[in-house]
Amino acid sequence: MKKIIALILAAIMLTCAFVGCKDDSTDDSGDTAKPKLTVATSPDFPPFENLENGKVVGIEVEIMEIICEKLGYELVIEQIAFDSVIPGIETGKYDCGMSGISVTPDREESVLFTAPYCLAAQCIVVKADSAIASKADLAGKTIAVQLGTTADEFCRGEGYNVQSFEANPDAKLALTSGTVDAWVVDDLTAAEMCKGDSSVKILSENMTTEPYAFAFNFKDEELVDKFDEVIADLMADGTIASIFAKYEAPYTAPANN
Ligand code: ARG
Question: pLDDT tens-digit profile of 103-122?
Answer without folding.
Answer: 999 999 999 999 999 999 99
